Amino acid sequence: MPHRPTSSGVRFSFPARLLSILLIVACSHPEPFPTGEVPDIGPRTATPPIQLTYNLAPDRTPAWLEDGSGLAYSFQASPGWPDLCLAVLPAIGGTRRSEKCVRVATDTDSVEALSRVAPGPGSRAAWVDARSLHGRIAPDHGSIRVGSLAPGDTGTAVHTLPYLAPSGTVHITATHLGWLTPTTLTYVGADVLYIGRSSRLVDTFVVGREVAVLDLAADPPSVSIVANTSLASSVWPAADGTSLFYTVAGDSRIFQQTLTTGSVTVVHDFGARGIARDVTVRGGSLVAVVGGRVSFSVDPVLGPIQRDGGGALVRVDLATGMETDVPFPGLVARQAALSPDGRHLAVEGIDTLAFPDPNLWLLELP
After folding, report:
1. What local confidence, expressed as pLDDT, does residue 134 receive?
2. How confident is residue 24, by pLDDT bands cut at 50, 70 and 90?
3. 221-229, long-range: CB < 8 A, 24+ apart
4. Closest Cα partner for 93 from 127, 47, 155?
5. How far apart are CA 217 and CA 234, in angstroms?
6. Is 70 exceeded by the pLDDT of residue 94?
7. What is the reported pLDDT for 1?
């Protein structure tokens, strides 16, 4: 549910600070959709930009299936139904192919939230799972899980949330999940700040702390921290599994680090165009969200905070460094994801004048 912004700040102590979901209202788990056969309905238009979802509640974090045939994402079924589910949508839009929701019959006053999905190799996927009891501001516990996107597959917890990272920093949640190799996940280990005057007047900010690598082949799976990634705001694994592209809060540059040597290079600098985030790279193209409704400041109590209401999409030709704007008229973008063939872009699109919650859109690269 939306919360009014407030002028004063309070940082809620652990364990309340887990994820960027305000879980205040009790939930009785109503069925979001009627049971029975759902007709296969195609997209409303076949010409990009295509609005893929028309949800009255938020649809977030689109991620492509490995073969490019569809998109996995996180959705809230309705404004009054606080649970978050995962879904798979055809690449050009239309009827959802599947939905994964957690409904625990014995927990009628609980909230279960599945988010940050990352489809991977061999029909596997990773996602963040968070659980909360009624009345909590944030989840009581969470985990990073790996399984399939099949509706009944709850996956296997490969790491608990929150945890103390090897750097000494507490990671409350994980954002920008991706597969570096078939046995390695990468993500931004993040903190969550709740700012407000009371538990019912709170704004939530996810603050990236550093890039983490989760080795699933270790027993148990182990986390390592990528050096020189303090205040990372997004990360994208290179196709060959040897390096990472990432952005840093308050910075206009895109960085690339080779993992074996730790060597860091500046891939591109957007300069006066503003703060870069949500980097995505396929083939010879890089796309980032740049500038727009974003700000960075250092609070004397809470520390660095980047507020992000969306920005412009900019493509960079990695061979020439040439920038090209990706048209997205009337909307601002977050969470860009290039398709495996590098020709299409799935994004959260926000109409700042008419409707503040994001829907998903499909765009073509210019």
Report:
1. 57
2. very low
3. 221/158, 221/159, 223/159, 223/163, 223/165, 223/166, 223/189, 224/166, 225/165, 225/166, 225/167, 225/189, 226/186, 226/257, 226/259, 227/262, 228/257, 228/262, 228/264, 229/257
4. 47
5. 24
6. yes
7. 35
